[in-house]
Amino acid sequence: MAAIFPSEEWLKGLEAKLNSDTRYRDLARNWEGDLLFFIEPEGHLDERLTFYLDLWHGTCRKVEYKPPAESHPNPVFTLTASYNNITSILTGKLNPMTAMMTSRLKVKGSMGYMMRNVPTVLDFVRCAQEVTTEIL
Question: What torsion do the CA atoms of 64, 38, 68, 33 make, to the nearest 10 degrees?
């Protein structure tokens, strides 16, 4: 299922992709951690966008589009990026690891855990790229 980013349809498509992709399931089999994304307004995005993913041992147990931040007060990871930076990652113009190391994608949580799980992180991004057919 492919969809326009950002949208609830896109996020549901990502959930379906993560749960059906055997490569992701294998690489992420030891991953334990939920993600709360903050996409800061820029370009075509007029207001801050949030989305939440509960990732656990190669599956995506839950997604939420535009949840209030207080509904997930202690996610394992909080990721913050401008709209242009996140869309650059989704189109392959910006490497996600480079984005993290240069603070274009800010990570709150264990950077050591992220670094030990680079294949999982990169495959998560591959899945996100594959469900993105258009960017607003």
Answer: 60
Q: Which fold has domain 3-135?
A: Nonspecific Lipid-transfer Protein; Chain A (3.30.1050)
Percent of the chain with pLDDT over 90: 89
- Percent helix, percent strand, percent coil in the chain, to nearest 5: 40, 30, 25
Predicted local confidence at residue 3, as pLDDT: 80
- The pTM (predicted TM-score) of the whole model is 0.93
Domains of the chain, residue spans = 3-135
Residues 6+ apart with CB under 8 A from 70: none
d(CA 31, CA 47): 31
CA distance 58 to 52: 16
